[in-house]
Specification:
The structure is a single chain. Helix content is 41%, strand content 14%. With 397 residues, it is α/β, with parallel strands linked by helices. It has a seven-stranded mixed sheet with strand order 2-10-9-8-7-3-4, with helices on both faces. The chain has a three-stranded antiparallel sheet with strand order 11-14-13, with helices on one face. Strand 5 and strand 6 form a beta hairpin. Helix 2 packs antiparallel against helix 9, helix 3 runs parallel beside helix 9 and helix 4 crosses helix 8. The longest helix is centred in the last third of the chain and has 22 residues. The radius of gyration is 21 Å and the shape is globular.
Length: 397
């Protein structure tokens, strides 16, 4: 059976390949410290679970509107509008089975073959996958490490824009870097997008996963909401990764097309899960605050322990649950030139599993430092300490 030619352009979420390595090592009876995957080992708040249970008992198990139940669309519009200072209505909202479908549906709705789309690299690999799969040209842009964390490479972004550039994917609160723009950088980017008439996918799943300060959205800048679609998800804010609940918010004409795609692709997001989402946004917020408290402690411990290893430096971000340490000097000292061999040797010697930079896109020209990604959403503090003690001993041997 001959597969469609476009399948060759479809990528995967490469962190799952690291999961396979970790799983195989654990299956042999070895202990694994899972820093590789951004899943969560924190239970969904009980009030949300109870709301789903009640919805099931109440018979909310059939089809529902493809756009989502009105109750959820209304509270999503109110919540995101309040947090971003924008006026939304339910007509601006399309409920999705997770955040990830928004990426594909955004491009299905708007991208024509040959259109160019700028996307972050290192970044979430599904951006590049969906752009190329749908016939677009994926153009990567990068970041530079500064004393204030990672910042956009502005000159290279400007140089990459051509007459065929139509899209800019902006993941503020970035996976894997933990990067976020300050006000000046965000305004610069907004000006650039408006100058070149670029459509923006504002991927904001970590908007509420922050430890100090206040998150901001590029869509709050005048002139940007009209050209942007926001990707939101319940996964991180409410520890609901496996529930698969998210949404797209944007101009009505785009949301109407996304709703039409919902009809064609999954009919609707499970109704009882949507009622859990209503409770998440409107019910007791003690649980979400507790999630942040747990993640903050993990972050602080992990940052201190990583910076305590000879040859490792890591910036402490105020958003996401990812760290992107520089391990260039470790590889040089231990004589490694192959990052994947370094990763696997470390796994087999210590049980510590992490992603390499190449799991988030092909390295760009001029990159001369070696970074890896640590996720701390799925590992408790005692295991962080235990795993990092082994890592320190191995890397400093």
């Amino acid at each position: 059976m001959k597969l469609a030619d476009r399948i060759s352009r479809l990528g995967v979420e490469t962190a799952f390949a690291v999961s396979d390595d970790a799983r195989a090592w654990a299956a042999k009876g070895n202990k694994v410290y899972p820093f590789h995957l951004g899943d969560m080992n924190i239970r969904t708040p009980l009030n949300i679970i109870e709301a789903a249970h009640k919805a099931l008992l109440d018979g909310k198990t059939g089809y529902c509107p493809a756009a989502g139940i009105p109750e959820l669309r209304e509270v999503i519009a109110a919540d995101l509008g309040k947090n971003r200072g924008i006026q939304f209505t339910m007509e601006n909202v399309s409920v999705q089975p997770g955040g990830k479908p928004v990426i594909g549906k955004f491009f299905q709705a708007l991208l024509n073959e040959g259109d160019e789309a700028l996307y972050p690299n290192p970044g979430y690999p599904i951006y590049e996958s969906q752009i190329q799969f749908l016939g677009g040209v994926a153009v990567p842009y990068g970041y530079t490490m500064t004393k204030n964390g990672f910042r956009l490479q502005r000159d290279k972004i400007e140089a990459a824009i051509t007459r065929r550039t139509r899209f800019f994917v902006y993941n503020n609160g970035q996976n894997p870097l933990g990067a976020e723009s300050d006000d000046e950088e965000m305004q610069w980017l907004a000006n650039l997008c408006m100058k070149h008439n670029l459509l923006v996918l504002a991927d904001e799943p970590y908007f509420h996963t922050r430890y100090s300060g206040k998150s901001k959205s590029i869509t709050s800048i005048p002139g940007m909401m009209e050209r942007s679609v926001i990707l939101m998800t319940f996964s991180k804010r409410y520890a609901m990764t496996g529930w698969r609940l998210g949404g797209a918010l944007g101009p009505k004409e785009v949301i109407n097309v996304i709703n039409k795609l919902n009809v064609n692709q999954e009919s609707c997001t499970p109704q009882f899960v949507q009622y859990a989402g209503v409770e998440a946004l409107t019910g007791d917020q003690t649980g979400p605050k507790g999630i942040i408290d747990v993640l903050r402690e993990r972050r602080d411990v992990l940052v201190d322990l990583l910076n305590g290893i000879q040859g490792v430096t890591v910036y402490k971000p105020e958003v996401t649950f990812y760290l992107f340490p520089d391990v260039t000097d470790v590889l040089k000292r231990l004589g490694y030139t192959d990052e994947q061999k370094f990763r696997l040797d470390t796994l087999h010697a210590t049980g510590v599993s992490f992603c390499s930079r190449s799991h988030f896109g092909r390295p760009l020209p001029g990159e001369d430092r070696v970074y890896i990604r640590f996720a701390y959403s799925g590992i408790d503090v005692d295991k962080i300490r235990e795993g990092l003690a082994k890592l320190k001993a191995y890397w400093e041997r």
